[in-house]
Amino acid sequence: MKAYDASAFEKPSVTVDLVIFTVTDGELKALLIKRGQEPFAGKWALPGGFVRMDESLEDAARRELEEETGIDGGMYLEQLYTFGDPKRDPRTRVITVAYFALADPSTVNARVTGHEQITDVKWFPAHSLPPELAFDHRKIIDYAVKRLKNKLEYTAVGFELLPTLFTLTELQRLYEAILREKLDKRNFRKKVEAMGILEKTSRMKKGVHRPARLYRFVRTKPRSTFSRVRFEGVR
Amino acid sequence: MKAYDASAFEKPSVTVDLVIFTVTDGELKALLIKRGQEPFAGKWALPGGFVRMDESLEDAARRELEEETGIDGGMYLEQLYTFGDPKRDPRTRVITVAYFALADPSTVNARVTGHEQITDVKWFPAHSLPPELAFDHRKIIDYAVKRLKNKLEYTAVGFELLPTLFTLTELQRLYEAILREKLDKRNFRKKVEAMGILEKTSRMKKGVHRPARLYRFVRTKPRSTFSRVRFEGVR
DNA sequence: ACAAAAGTGTTCCTAATACACCCATGA
DNA sequence: TCATGGGTGTATTAGGAACACTTTTGT
Questions:
Q1: What are the chain A neighbours of B15 within 8 Å (beta carbons)?
Q2: Contacting residues of A for B68, CB less than 8 Å apart
Q3: Which bases of chain D are under 7 A from a protein CB atom?
């Protein structure tokens, strides 16, 4: 019980690990860092780090997020799962609380800052990751991808991956990239408009062909029907 | 990064807390224990305890579960969320990984075993909990209730709360108790039969009126359509 | 024979799917 | 003027919701 003297127990280390997603070139990508130190030196791993004694888990995640991507706060962040296998870190007991984050590619500026132990930072397609990842990070990423796909079907989370203004086709491509399936243009638009979270702007995006209308994402007041709109099977 | 020397950091304590649900008397109930020690002496709290260095989080949860309820393994157990507010424990930094468990009431035998720090154990209706719970346990329970309700709508998790053989009315009452809404008998049966996870047995349950057929829950091979069956709005 | 719970079938309606054509622009 | 992506409407179908009556038993 809680009532036991906490100091009587040997304590595990606690870290947060981040699966930072973005979508570029029609592909879902995750940000990985190359480790410069043992264990798993030279292997790709999730960004993350130790939770400090005076910060909440989410604060820790957001701090690491900023350090790693150069984005200061505001990014979508959600707790994923806590991985606590006693052998997941070969050195000592480390329990990690995994988060996933969604980054609008236009704002992300991945970089190596401060961490001499990181020798490289790179976006990897979520479906062709390096074969050998550090720790149990492959498992964590796979889990995050599953959760993201699922979440996409019943929430408006996808907008986090787009700039403020976007066209419906861009939104559709985003969904297709994450779900890895083609969607029907007409049905997709019907669904997304039914959600009532799109605001038509007066601006148009010029391209080589007919200009496309730009939309903005608006968080509406909680609607009971909102969470029921799903993307499953929009084909 | 992971690469830092783990021992250089002060470590938080890590516990697991359990929201153990059952349904009796047409009500969803959660098992609470009365604390015999500070902090929160005399207050009701979730069962739980420190994670040992050599056991996984789930192992820790299952161990506590058995110690608290006298059920040896096999119970449905799912990781809920990890709560890590630095001030959630007034003494020291304690991060807790919350789990929720589902107990068939016929097998549960709540008791006080071994823990001199526990002065009482009791099932409380999830919707009328003691006003003052220890730590952030009210938040944890509320979250668990939300998750359970949600889970009920797209998985077969409800069967964990019933004995092996049950009638369809018993199953419906269970759903009604958790969702806190009346369901339409005909639609409920259609849905639940469409799930394809019920096996009609030849046995009947005798009562004061027309005997009811007893069913058994069968885990079918993974069916792609399975997860789409929902209970929302079965009214 | 009747009270009470078990059990079942049909209609209505909404939402999901599948599908094809016109529109506006730049080259 | 034509190639290309932008944009829209409709018919069909499946599933969710609403609803009422018959059956079986114990008393």
A1: 2
A2: none
A3: 3-10, 16-20, 23-27
Query: Chain B within 8 Å of A220 (Cβ-Cβ)?
Result: no
- Tell which residue, A83, A67, A82, A71, has the closest CA to residue A117: A67
Q: Which residue of B has its CA nearest to A80?
A: B81
B60: nearest CA partner in chain A:
A84
Sort out which chain B residues have CB atoms less than 8 A from A33's CB and list them. Answer: 1
What residues does each domain of chain A span?
6-151, 154-225
A213 Cβ within 7 A of any nucleic strand D atom: yes
Instruction: Give whole-number Cα distances, A47 to A31, A69, A70, B139, in Å.
Output: 8, 10, 13, 29
Q: A24 CA, D9 C1': separation in Å? A: 33
The secondary structure of A47-84 as a DSSP string is: -EEEPPTTS-HHHHHHHHHHHHH---S-SEEEEEEEE-
**In the structure, what pLDDT confidence band is assigned to residue B148 with cuts at 50, 70 and 90?**
very high
**Three-state DSSP class for A36?**
coil
Q: Which two tokens stand for residue A55?
A: 């910060």
**Residue A14 pLDDT > 50:** yes
Cβ contact B1–A54 (<8 Å): no
Helices of type H across B164-213: 168-179, 185-194
CATH 3.40.710.10 fits A154-225, yes or no: no
Q: H or E stretch including A191?
A: helix A185-194
What residues form DSSP beta bridges with A28? Answer: A23
pLDDT digits (tens, 9 = 90+) for B175-200: 999 999 999 999 999 999 998 899 99
How many other CB atoms are found less than 10 A from the CB of residue B98? Answer: 27
Say yes or no to pLDDT of B229 above 50. no
Question: Contact A51/B13, CB-based, under 8 Å?
Answer: no
What's the pTM?
A: 0.91
* Residue contact A6–B94, C-beta within 8 A: yes
CB B195 within 8 A of CB B156: yes
pLDDT, tens digit (0-9, with 9 covering 90-100), for A104-119: 988 777 666 656 678 8
Domain B6-151 adopts which CATH fold? Nucleoside Triphosphate Pyrophosphohydrolase (3.90.79)
CB atoms < 10 A from the CB of A200, how many?
11
